[in-house]
Design goal:
Elements lengths: L3 E3 L9 H5 L5 E2 L11 E2 L12 H5 L5 E3 L18 H10 L13 H11 L12 E5 L2 H16 L9 H9 L11 E8 L5 H15 L6 E4 L1 H9 L1 H7 L5 E10 L20
Helix pairs in contact: 4-7, 5-8, 5-9, 8-9
The structure holds flavin mononucleotide.
Flavin mononucleotide (FMN) binds next to strand 7 and helix 8.
Length: 272
């Protein structure tokens, strides 16, 4: 079986599959659009990134990709784009949450969240972002302690904010992971040049996708910095061999809600 097969009884010969293919693998067959049908250019088939655009764009479900047929690709629900006002509220209403209810998270809910987030764009559709989910508050605290131990080795005069964080820790607060009940860490192969950007995008999507679940997140920047700088913190994270932390978020149910949108700087734009 070839890379794509076309059900000729359904194909409207609109050519959308060829236009949507990002790597130009689909040609429109001799005689198109009167007699020919879409076909692949065999010599460059290997370049297919399995993005599924050819299947997803076909209005008649006529195109089968050998790794993805139309039946496994859910139809989009009407109104899926939402309105600018709805999306604006979601993006503007999201806040970094640093106060969590001490409530354990249901792994099923986190599974649902990550199942949405796996659709975030990845470089060349590589889908190489992996996740480590820590649902044990004590384990999260253990990581905060590892970061604090690393901070103690730094020069407090040179690293902004460290003195205050160490002081807060001594006073029983957790300025690193904010006593979050859970932590989600994105990781990937240390030698994958696109992994970092893909993970950042996935995490930014996760930040927003968590909101309809009633969850709040906060980026774990200090943990990330420590994981890349300290052998002890990286070891405490226990990621698979050859992987490094690409980013992470604390996650949990917010202890309180925000009722207003704080202001932000205007977008700095140069119109060319
Ligand atoms: C890359 C990155 C790392 C961050 N790291 C931390 C962190 O370690 N601890 C923390 O409390 N907030 C962290 N934040 C949250 C920022 O402080 C927060 O986004 C900013 O103050 C704006 O607030 P808002 O997210 O509520 O709009 C981080 C944000 C980003 C984008």
């Amino acid at each position: 079986m070839g890379l794509i097969t076309v059900d000729e009884s359904k194909c409207a010969r609109c050519g959308l599959c060829a236009r949507a293919c990002p790597v130009g693998i689909i040609a429109l067959g001799e005689g198109f659009p009167t007699t020919g049908f879409p076909t692949t250019i065999e010599k460059i088939e290997k370049g297919c990134i399995t993005c599924g655009h050819c299947v997803a764009t076909c209005p008649n479900g006529a195109l089968n990709h050998c790794r993805m047929n139309p039946e496994v690709c859910q139809p989009l629900a009407p109104g899926w784009r939402l309105t600018p006002a709805q999306v604006g509220q979601l993006i503007k209403g999201r806040r970094s949450i640093r106060n969590y209810r001490p409530e354990p998270l249901d792994p099923e809910v986190i599974g649902q969240l990550l199942d949405i987030v796996r659709y975030a764009p990845t470089g060349m559709n590589s889908q190489t972002v992996s996740w480590k989910v820590i649902l044990d508050e004590q384990e999260v605290q253990f990581l905060s302690l590892a970061v604090i131990e690393w901070m103690r080795t730094l020069d407090g005069d040179q690293v902004h904010g460290i003195r205050g964080m160490l002081k807060a820790w001594e006073m029983g607060r957790d300025p690193v992971l904010r006593k979050a009940p859970a932590l989600i860490v994105a990781h990937g192969a240390a030698d994958d040049p696109m992994a970092s950007a893909s993970a950042m995008i996935a995490l930014a999507n996760l930040d927003l996708a968590a909101l309809p679940f009633g969850l709040g997140t906060c980026w774990a920047g200090f943990l990330h910095q420590a994981a890349l700088s300290s052998y002890e913190v990286a070891t405490a994270l226990a990621l698979p061999s050859g992987h490094r932390m690409l980013g992470g978020v604390m996650i949990g149910y917010p202890e309180f809600e925000y009722t207003r949108i704080p202001t932000r700087n205007p977008a700095q734009v140069t119109w060319g």
